[in-house]
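Feature request, filed as a ticket because there's no other form

It would be nice if the structure record came with a short human-readable summary line next to the tokens. Right now we just get the raw output. Example of a typical job, pasted below so the devs can see what we mean:
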Amino acid sequence: MRNWVIFLTIVFSLGFISPECSADDAALQRLTALLDPVKSLQANFVQTVTDADKKVLQTSQGTIAVKRGNRLRWETTSPFSYLIVTDGAVMWRFDKDLDQATRQKFSGQLADTPALILSGETQRIKANFDVSREPGKDGEYFRLQPKQKGALFRALTLAFTNNGISQLVLQDNLDQRTEIRFSSLVANPALSDTLFHFDPPKGVDVVVDEP
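Raw output as currently delivered:
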């Protein structure tokens, strides 16, 4: 089964934190310092999904483009073609194999998913997640764990190499692990807003999933 992990909207709109902070606040402050300078981003990605026994369930690859203002273009190119794109108002999902496009309103509900962990305000993240920081041999790692029961995932880990984000790892409540590694990453490229606009191709079945 295809795993549509949509926690890739790294819009980098975190706020500032008081210098007088706990260890948890210090980790969030450092995370903010790494993300705040990035207004847009482009990269290639490889996504690997494994089960609790570390068996690989799925591997896919493609490209991602992100721009502040909740703009995202996430395009899987192999082993299938699938597009997720939003301009911050409407989100589209286009399955080329099925010739089907789904239109959704970009709502607060979507903003609470792992997709948008880093697109919200610092205080919202602080209120809902425990944030810890661990230096590593090849960079820094930040682990976000939901405080509330019933969250969609158990933990989200972000890895930074040379001050740039290099990896995202999501562990869900069934111990399924989704790892996304970025390559050829470009910070602050000039991205036109048209990149985040989608017009369904002629003949495609359009499903409107809105209340």
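Something like this underneath would help us a lot:
Helices lie at 23-35, 108-111, 122-128.
The longest strand covers residues 56-67.
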